[in-house]
Amino acid sequence: MMDIGAVISPFVISIIAKNSDKALLSSAIFFGIVTLIEIARNMYANLKHKY
Predict the structure, then answer these.
(1) Most exposed: 10, 13, 23, 41, by fewest CB within 10 Å?
(2) Which residues does 6 contact at the CB level (< 8 Å), separation at least 6?
(3) Is this model's pTM higher than 0.70 or not?
(4) Cα(10)–Cα(27) distance, rounded to whole angstroms?
(5) How many other CB atoms sit within 10 Å of the CB of residue 23?
């Protein structure tokens, strides 16, 4: 499902934004935020299992 979302989301955002530059920028920001959240979640899980 993650692969499908990664492929479809830029197209959906481009339909909403009506401008490809803004669509790509908003996609990059969205995926950057999701990446940071996942990194923080994984770090927290690793610390939790360590102690």
Answers:
(1) 41
(2) 31
(3) no
(4) 6
(5) 19
